[in-house]
Design goal:
Length: about 300
Amino acid sequence: MPVLVLLIGLALGGSASFTAPAWSNSVQAVAPMAAARVYPKVPPRPEQIASLLATIETELRASTTPATALPALGHQQQVIYRRLGRQPQLAQAVRALLPHRWQGVFDHHIGARRALQAMNRSGIKPTTLPAWRIVDPEPADALLAHYRKAEAATGIAWQVLAAVNLVETVMGRLDGVSIANAQGPMQILPSTWAERGIGQGNIRNPHDAIQAAARYLVRRGGLRDIRQGLWGYNNSDHYGRAVLHYAALLRSDPLAFRGLYHWQVHLMTSAGDLWLPSGTHNQSRLPVQQHIQRFPYAAPPDSL
């Protein structure tokens, strides 16, 4: 099924008062960013990245972490993994410095990033942005309820559905139509939606789209072999590997959802790894530099 993943996966306002370095040993250096739109920075040295990443992974799962801190923690986590996915030697050095507890988590994240990157055979980085609208997703509890309802009805694991939702539209943040006309938070073709027993309700409604995606995965053989089902969803082994890495992460560590839910829409462009914050709304294609003029904080730091 044609999707937006090739764009969001390949790269998948206000002023800040925060001035402490983002790689401070304390999570207090990350949490204040939740109140402002600040592009997270990545420390220059492997030991600093490993220290920051271990802190973030711990705080994302801690019951004592305030909900207001989670958006900044999740975005910082995402930016780190995106950078490490593009720099294998740095990633190897960081992994070796991580506590053993987080190495398996790290492997799933990096494995997914590299699988998504492998889908871009051309290596072309766009100079314009698509006609996308970036919106806030449904509350995390609501999405989890939709995934679990679909699992109960079809047998497709909720973790797979969450991973598809993440890879396709970053949990529904990306409200756009693919070149092939795939639509909604699960990027389903209207022709697929119209198949008997697949689409019910509104293709752009998260609940309805998640249920339909689960039914489609069943139809494409997902109960016999989820890899086969995912191939039917997107004809790429790389796509299936990426989804299954995120699904395996959620299966072994359900609290990892707290970070993934707060990831943002990023696009690898001619100007670097551009952030498309909530509120972005391009009615037609827009030059990258015009987006940066509108959202200066969306431009990546020099190190990215």
